[in-house]
Amino acid sequence: MKVCEMTGVVMRIGSFSLVGLLGPASPFFWIWLVNTLDAILLTWCALLRRDTAYTVLNGFWILVGLVGISRTLGLF
Q1: Of the candidates 31, 39, 33, which has an alpha carbon nearest to the alpha carbon of residue 15?
Q2: What is the pTM of this model?
Q3: Using only C-alpha atoms, what is the Rg of the chain?
């Protein structure tokens, strides 16, 4: 489980770092996709740990990610 959690955290740090470095030139679809995938991974880990606060927090980030993906695809 620690490997899964660390993978999710590194994914999130990497994607936000890329946005910080590239700014408006960032590949936003891929950033949102990675953020959503890491939120799914971290939500799963939080569920296994029975950590309600992190389950809710990362569940929220899944929803935010889905909105971000939808917006980059022009659905909103």
Answers
A1: 31
A2: 0.90
A3: 13
- Whole-angstrom Cα distance, residue 41 to residue 26? 23
Q: Rounded to an integer, what is the distance from CA 3 to the centroid of its chain?
A: 16
Q: With beta carbons less than 8 A apart as the criterion, state whether 35 and 68 touch.
A: yes
| Whether 37 contacts 58, CB under 8 Å | no
Query: Residues 1-52: pLDDT tens digits?
Result: 899 999 999 999 999 999 999 999 999 999 999 999 999 999 999 999 999 9
The runs of H, that is alpha helices, within the chain are: 2-22, 28-49, 52-72
Sequence-distant (6+) residues with CB within 8 A of 22 are none
